[in-house]
């Protein structure tokens, strides 16, 4: 069983840490490059959203990230102490609209939904806990 | 790679931006600022080469969408001409790969056959004149007594009611409201722009206020003095720096406008990007004999620009240029600069910057667009600070459009 836990501060510059960590893990766990990029996208979308909109103060906060890879399934857990936010409640964007009518928000969550197989949200002890999984061998 | 590199290539009218690296939440702002700068310099046709971009996040996509919309709105374009597999994969997921890759058709020419175009160059600027309806007559109305400002002598009997309405333009001192009593503590510089009226309350707040008239709602202003005119414009003049670096002063602009139109007195509405404004506004309502232009009160009661203000803002200016002093107009006009026979009175409404169309610009639509989508930041009576050595000189502009109605 492969597992990795790390945390970053609520600074946009810190999201580079995610890409670096994923890159070394994908070598170690032998995950294909295109999947690594998709997972990176998912993590960055969720974490940058928390960093940009999740906090009512300007204090330093930790965002904790658990990654595991068991039986071809990658699991991601993101934990933050920001404002309550359930990304599953964000309205689905209409990707068929012409560009003039496109809303600028909601795209990140849309990408996350497209990439991951399963997403579960919980609010526990004033923390947002989001669990996401993806079977990387499943043929799309 | 954790960086974003941006390299610019120029292909005649089109610019190509080649990006290498990551377009993520941390770096999309870099591309956005870069494109904003190009647009300010007048480049409206921009293609992107994203073959070197290994990573695109939703924040990056947002930049692509918003710049695409901005440039389409001004008849330009912002499109992806080539992209990496990763970028294509992400854009496909949000249904944008094709849309953002499209190059728009040629901008349509809607100039009607009756319009005549003239171009000339002066003061490092290109001027192009479009004759709209040269025979149009515009009536100019003066109202109220400007002299009472010096003694803060305005009272109920001195006011004129101004209503917003299509094609009506004017400036002066006044306040939004229906009666003198209602407005008496707030009189300040106003500018009437068709169905919208904006003013800077002289109540010390320094925050401009405005009403956009729509349907049933008519903006109503109580004016102390000023002038207004109907926008039966005879000419549209576009001015643009020949090299994106020159700026033009109000005096030089006035000289060229009178020259091309061959008129001695012009009512003007101008939409222009500023290169620094010099001017003043009153910060106290001129009633009850209040001391405003006396020292030391003036330090509190009048706002002067202490340096050129609102650089690169978008400005809407209404006013009058005149080479012809008459008993009627002279009270309302001031010399544009020392030893200049040209007299003027201009008020500018200052908005945050947005790109302007280069052709087919519509005055009423642009005014609406500015009030709806950007922030009105200030209203200023443009003045010339001609003090020797310490003087700031005149307001200057980078480019813009002037709608001109001769009133000879």
Would you mind describing this structure in some detail?
The complex is a heterodimer of chains A (140) and B (408). Chain A has one domain: Histidine kinase-like ATPase, C-terminal domain (Heat Shock Protein 90). In chain A, helix 1 (15-29) runs antiparallel to helix 2. Chain A has helices at 15-29, 33-53, 107-115, and strands spanning 2-9, 62-70, 73-80, 118-124, 127-135. The mean pLDDT of chain A is 89. With 140 residues, chain A is an alpha+beta fold. In chain A, a hairpin with a 2-residue loop joins strand 2 and strand 3. The longest helix of chain A has 21 residues, at 33-53. A five-stranded antiparallel sheet of chain A has the order 1-2-3-5-4, with helices on one face. Chain A contains three helices and five strands; from the N terminus they run E-H-H-E-E-H-E-E. Chain B has helices at residues 28-40, 58-73, 85-93, 97-101, 180-183, 250-261, 298-301, 363-373, and strands at residues 4-11, 14-23, 45-56, 77-83, 116-122, 125-131, 140-144, 160-163, 168-176, 188-193, 196-199, 209-212, 220-230, 235-241, 248-249, 265-274, 279-282, 302-304, 314-322, 334-335, 343-351, 376-382, 396-406. Chain B has two domains: 5-101, Transcription Regulator spoIIAA (2-Layer Sandwich), CATH 3.30.750.24; 111-407, 60s Ribosomal Protein L30, Chain: A (2-Layer Sandwich), CATH 3.30.1330. Residues 107-115 of chain B have low confidence and may be disordered. In chain B, helix 1 packs parallel to helix 2 (58-73). Chain B starts with a strand and ends with a strand. Chain B is α+β, with helices and mostly antiparallel strands and 408 residues long. Chain B is built from eight helices and 23 strands. The longest helix of chain B has 16 residues, at 58-73. In chain B, 18% of the residues lie in helices and 39% in strands. In chain B, strands 5, 6, 14, 15, 16, 17, 18, 19, 20, 21, 22 and 23 form a twelve-stranded antiparallel sheet that branches. In chain B, strands 7, 8, 9, 10, 11, 12 and 13 form a seven-stranded antiparallel sheet that branches. A four-stranded mixed sheet of chain B has the order 1-2-3-4. Classes of the chains: A alpha+beta (140), B alpha+beta (408). The interface between A and B is medium-sized, with 28 and 26 residues.
């Amino acid at each position: 069983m492969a597992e990795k836990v790390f945390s970053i501060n609520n600074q946009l510059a810190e999201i580079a840490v995610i890409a670096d960590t994923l890159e070394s893990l994908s070598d170690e766990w032998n995950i294909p490059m295109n999947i690594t990029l998709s997972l990176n996208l998912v993590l960055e979308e969720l974490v940058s959203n928390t960093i940009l909109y999740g906090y009512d103060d300007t204090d330093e906060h930790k965002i904790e990230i658990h990654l595991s890879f068991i039986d071809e399934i990658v699991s991601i857990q993101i934990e933050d102490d920001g404002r309550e936010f359930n990304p599953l409640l964000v309205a689905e964007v209409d990707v068929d609209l012409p560009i003039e009518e496109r809303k600028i928000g909601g795209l990140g969550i849309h990408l996350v939904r497209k990439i991951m197989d399963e997403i579960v949200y919980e609010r526990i002890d004033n923390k947002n806990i989001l669990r996401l999984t993806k079977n990387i061998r499943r043929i799309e | 790679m954790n960086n974003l590199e941006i390299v610019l290539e120029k292909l005649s009218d089109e610019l190509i931006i080649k990006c290498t690296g990551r377009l993520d939440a941390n770096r999309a702002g870099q591309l956005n600022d870069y494109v904003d700068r190009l647009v300010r310099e007048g480049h409206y046709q921009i293609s992107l080469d994203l073959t070197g971009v290994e990573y695109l996040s939703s924040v990056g996509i947002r930049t692509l969408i918003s710049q695409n919309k901005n440039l389409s709105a001004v008849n330009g374009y912002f499109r992806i001409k080539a992209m990496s597999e990763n970028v294509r994969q992400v854009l496909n997921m949000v249904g944008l790969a094709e849309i953002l890759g499209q190059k728009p058709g040629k901008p349509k020419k809607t100039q009607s056959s009756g319009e005549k175009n003239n171009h000339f160059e002066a003061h490092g600027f290109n001027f192009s004149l479009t004759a709209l309806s040269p025979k149009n007559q515009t009536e100019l109305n003066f109202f109220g007594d400007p002299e009472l400002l010096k003694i803060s002598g305005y009272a109920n009997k001195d006011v004129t009611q101004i209503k917003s309405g299509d094609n009506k333009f004017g400036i002066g001192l006044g306040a939004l409201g229906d009666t003198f009593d209602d407005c008496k503590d707030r009189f300040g510089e106003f500018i009437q722009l068709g169905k919208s009226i904006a003013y800077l309350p002289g109540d010390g707040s320094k925050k401009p206020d405005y009403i956009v008239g729509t349907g049933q709602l008519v903006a109503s202003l109580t004016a102390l003095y000023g002038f207004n005119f109907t926008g039966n414009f005879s000419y549209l003049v576009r001015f643009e720096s020949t090299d994106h670096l020159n700026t033009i002063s109000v005096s030089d602009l006035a000289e060229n406008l009178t020259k091309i139109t061959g008129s001695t007195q012009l009512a003007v509405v101008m939409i222009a990007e500023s290169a620094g404004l010099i001017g003043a506004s009153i910060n106290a309502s001129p009633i009850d004999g209040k001391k405003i232009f006396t020292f030391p009160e003036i330090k509190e009661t009048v706002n002067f620009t202490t340096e050129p203000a609102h650089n690169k803002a978008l400005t809407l200016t209404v006013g009058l240029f005149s080479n012809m002093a008459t008993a009627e107009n002279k009270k309302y006009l001031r010399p544009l600069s020392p030893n200049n026979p040209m007299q003027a009175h201009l008020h500018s409404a200052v908005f945050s910057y947005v790109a302007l169309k280069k052709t087919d610009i519509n005055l009423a639509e642009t005014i609406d667009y500015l009030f709806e989508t950007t922030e009105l930041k200030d209203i200023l009576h443009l003045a010339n600070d001609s003090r020797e050595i310490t003087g700031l000189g005149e307001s200057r502009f980078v480019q813009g459009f002037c709608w001109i109605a001769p009133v000879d």
